[in-house]
């Protein structure tokens, strides 16, 4: 995935572990040891019971929950990437996150399509996660 | 403000409450505007829920007036969105190349989503779950354009067909150009006061019978269910307080940022069951002469959309209930529902209005 010019995350004290893991191609999410709630994006507390959460590493497998093919975006660098897929990926572990689907034609993307995560390292402590077609996972 | 004062017969010095979400997309704030307009308020509200802000204001204003916090509230909105940045709201966004982004947007910024894309993902999921078609979504754009034809101030007035919508350029699958609202400048004002005071004013009053507002998320990546919105909760509150049901409503003024927005609101507000919005809008249901005329001013899809058009939903509903809608008049309109959608299908505000005292 071409990273040139993309707006990038500014990690903060809550999100830093997530972005650092992404640089290694790992997908993290939060789980609550008190109530079991899983959440993304990362927060300072569990959104169900307000307890402190713990990090969990996801399998990196998921499915396309919904998506669109962006065919008009005047902002660089995306203008040069058209058309491209923006999708909500549902992880095996249940949480959803936005990303792009790469390594396949935009028109081949469909809801329910199995995908797997990979990270693009930007710098120390910062990588960005993308997804590409993957093998169907066991339910 | 001038025209709202003239229309209602309220003197500016009678205004003791003020509500404003800022100009454009939230520049000049309520306090800036209160200074500019020299409003001597004893109640002020600058809540900002995006396009549905004004439906939330009606809820807040009704409570404030009922509680005696103030008697007469002015709500204003003005935006130079088109002049300021052209037609970039839906397909450019606010981020610049290489920008470092904090807060909740850090999880979406790298991926180049645009505003249209957010609604497109909702439409895509709705099609997947319920078999909704692009033809059905197009019916909504066609109905609204038919009403824009009757509004001399509407931006686009040439009639369109379902085929025209489908043939228009794809912006973000499955939404075509004609599934998307226009971008314009625009503004409006409205005044709310006690029923008692309203009786002696220049025009027959329009009564707030019930109002409700709710939120499921703000950023689209946090939408819990891409086929359901907080209009379920907002509508239940508004209808419950008004003591009426969807079947009683004569005309709907809905936030039509995109055709899918209207479809979701119809389902979530209970005009049809979840998933049945597609068949529901077929056959001219939303056109004048149909069961439920939608956006009789031409809406955001054809008339005007300065960024947060929720105020126009209330203004057009009031026109309908006063019988002032000219060619677009819904015969014998007694009850109207205005429902705003703010953000990325995030914050929904519903208001039931009537022309008979409750
Ligand atoms: Zn918890």
Question: Describe it for me?
Answer:
The complex is a heterodimer of chains A (139) and B (358). Helices cover 6% and strands 39% of the residues of chain A. Chain A is mainly beta and 139 residues long. Chain A has a single domain (16-133), classed as OB fold (Dihydrolipoamide Acetyltransferase, E2P) (Beta Barrel). The mean pLDDT of chain A is 95. In chain A, a hairpin with a 6-residue loop joins β2 (28-31) and β3. In chain A, the strands form two sheets. Chain A has a five-stranded antiparallel sheet. A three-stranded antiparallel sheet of chain A has the order 3-2-4. The longest helix of chain A is centred in the N-terminal third of the chain and has 8 residues, at 16-23. Chain A has one helix at residues 16-23; strands at 8-9, 28-31, 38-39, 54-57, 61-70, 84-91, 96-101, 114-123, 126-133. With 358 residues, chain B is an alpha/beta fold. Chain B has two domains: 2-87 and 187-198, Peroxisomal Thiolase, Chain A, domain 1; 114-182 and 206-354, Peroxisomal Thiolase, Chain A, domain 1 (3-Layer(aba) Sandwich), CATH 3.40.47. Chain B has 13 helices and eleven strands. In chain B, the strands form three sheets. Chain B has a four-stranded mixed sheet, sandwiched between helices. In chain B, β1 (17-19), α2 and β2 form a beta-alpha-beta unit. β1 (8-9) of chain A pairs parallel with β4 of chain B. The complex binds zinc ion (ZN). Residues 32, 34-35, 37, 46, 48-49, 51 of chain A line the site of zinc ion.
């Amino acid at each position: 995935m071409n990273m040139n010019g993309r707006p990038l995350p500014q990690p903060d004290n809550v999100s830093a572990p997530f972005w650092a893991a992404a640089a290694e191609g790992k997908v993290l999410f939060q789980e609550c040891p008190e109530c079991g709630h899983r959440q993304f994006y990362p927060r300072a507390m569990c959104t169900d019971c307000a307890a402190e959460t713990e990090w969990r590493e996801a399998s990196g497998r998921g499915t396309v929950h919904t998506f669109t093919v962006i065919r008009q975006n005047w902002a660089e660098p995306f203008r040069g990437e058209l058309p491209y897929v923006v999708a909500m990926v549902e992880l095996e572990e249940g949480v959803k996150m936005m990303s792009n689907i790469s390594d396949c034609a935009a028109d081949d993307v469909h809801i329910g399509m199995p995908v797997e995560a990979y990270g693009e390292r930007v710098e120390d402590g910062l990588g960005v996660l993308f997804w590409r077609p993957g093998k169907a996972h066991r339910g | 403000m001038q025209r709202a004062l003239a229309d209602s017969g309220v003197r500016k010095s009678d205004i003791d409450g003020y509500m404003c979400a800022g100009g454009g997309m939230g520049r000049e704030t309520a306090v800036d505007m209160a200074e500019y307009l020299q409003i001597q308020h004893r109640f002020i509200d600058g809540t900002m829920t995006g396009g549905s802000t004004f439906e939330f204001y009606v809820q807040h204003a009704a409570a404030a007036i009922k509680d005696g916090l103030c008697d007469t509230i002015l709500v204003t909105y003005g935006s130079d969105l088109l002049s300021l940045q052209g037609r970039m709201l839906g397909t450019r966004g606010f981020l610049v190349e290489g920008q470092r982004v904090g807060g909740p947007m850090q999880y979406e910024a790298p991926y180049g989503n645009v505003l249209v894309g957010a609604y497109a993902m909702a439409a895509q999921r709705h099609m997947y779950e319920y078999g909704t078609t692009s033809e059905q979504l197009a019916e909504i754009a066609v109905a609204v354009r038919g009403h824009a034809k009757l509004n001399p101030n509407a931006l686009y007035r040439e009639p369109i067909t379902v085929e025209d919508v489908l043939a228009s350029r794809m912006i973000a699958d499955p939404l075509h150009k004609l599934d998307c609202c226009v971008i314009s400048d625009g503004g409006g004002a409205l005044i709310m006061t006690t029923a008692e005071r309203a009786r002696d004013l220049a025009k027959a009053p329009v009564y707030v019978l019930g109002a409700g507002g709710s939120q499921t998320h703000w950023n689209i990546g946090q939408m819990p269910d891409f086929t359901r919105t907080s209009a379920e909760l907002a509508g239940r509150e508004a209808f419950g307080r008004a003591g009426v049901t969807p079947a009683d409503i004569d005309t709907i003024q809905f936030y039509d940022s995109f055709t899918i927005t209207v479809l979701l609101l119809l389902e979530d507000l209970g005009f049809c069951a979840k998933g049945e919005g597609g068949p529901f809008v077929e056959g001219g249901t939303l056109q004048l002469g149909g069961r439920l005329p939608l956006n009789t001013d031409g809406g955001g899809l054809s008339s005007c959309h300065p960024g947060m058009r929720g105020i126009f939903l209330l203004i057009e509903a009031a026109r309908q209930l006063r019988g002032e809608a000219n060619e677009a008049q819904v015969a014998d309109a007694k009850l109207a529902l205005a429902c705003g959608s703010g953000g990325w299908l995030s914050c929904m505000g519903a208001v039931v209005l009537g022309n008979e005292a409750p």
